[in-house]
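Dear Dr. V.,

Thank you for agreeing to look over these. As mentioned in my earlier message, I'm a first-year student in the group and I'm still getting used to reading structure tokens, so any feedback on how I've presented them would be very welcome. I ran two proteins. I've put each sequence directly above its structure. The first is here:
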Amino acid sequence: MTRNEILKAIKNGVSLAGADLRDANIYGANLRGANLRGVNLSGADLRYADFRRTNLSNAYLSNAYLYGTNLSGANLNGADLYCANLRGADLHGADLRYADLRGANMTAAIGYKCAGWDPRGYHFRAVLFPDGPRITAGCRDFAVQEAKDHWKDNPDALARVASLETLQ
């Protein structure tokens, strides 16, 4: 699909769920609220695009260029963001549960903080929501106090939670 065909489909409310849009150039596009579940945007140029409240669950975004993209409130649950460039992306309220962020450039990402991997292999990260940070690790998704209560007997996890709760 061409850039114009993609934008026209979105404007007309057409679901692009599962579409193959590898290497597409939709720089600066307004894709707010679109259904892009399972779409393949690997290697796509998505710089400065508006993905607010967009369903990108299980989407393929490996090696995608998402510099300065607005992903606030987006559903990225299970998305493949392997080696994606998310530098300066706005992730406030984004659902990143089960997302593959290995090798992703998260430098200066807004509303996001990482506390690394614990010895069990859980990736501890926080995303900022209006009521404060939510902490995800493995299959867990907690508000700060819930995380503290859950990992009260795990000093390593508690230290990671403490570093994440300062996200503002």
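The second protein is here, in the same arrangement:
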Amino acid sequence: MTNKSKIFKNIFYKYFNSLTIFAIKFVDNEEQARDLVQEVFIKIWESNTDFNTEIALKTYLYFSTRNICIDYYRKNKGILLVAEKEDIPYEDNYFNEIIKEETYRILDEALDTLGDQSKRIIKMTMQGYSNKEVSSSIGISLNTVKTLKSRSYKKLKIILGNELIIILIVCI
């Protein structure tokens, strides 16, 4: 595998899910959103474009995804944009969605550093489950849930640093 292939593979795995979720906001169909995001990555691969910074890459990815979704929408007018359904100003919605998807991507990467059980506990907590509900669902003691949760939060705080505040604001 060439160096270019490795870099491309890393970019693909890092951004594909976030871009797909972002695209779903436009086309309201997960399978179609995946196809459109794959097209964006194919264009990147074929263009041999180099990006000087990660910000330039992210900007390109999100704008390209948005544009390909808009093109798809124009060709298939029977599908309404989610932004239109919600009567949210289009540009505001677009930038809010980018912020949300980037936040979830960063949080997901941080959660992947936790053990399986700790990750499950944190995700259930984020979904609103109480410690008692988590305990009975997973089949471990309440004290174990509390301990793993506390250790996980400490680890996430170290990993996320200043980004933790942004994540809390976006997720709340």
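From my reading of the second output: Confidence is low (pLDDT under 50) at residues 85-89. The radius of gyration is 19 Å. Does that match how you would interpret it?

Kind regards,
E.
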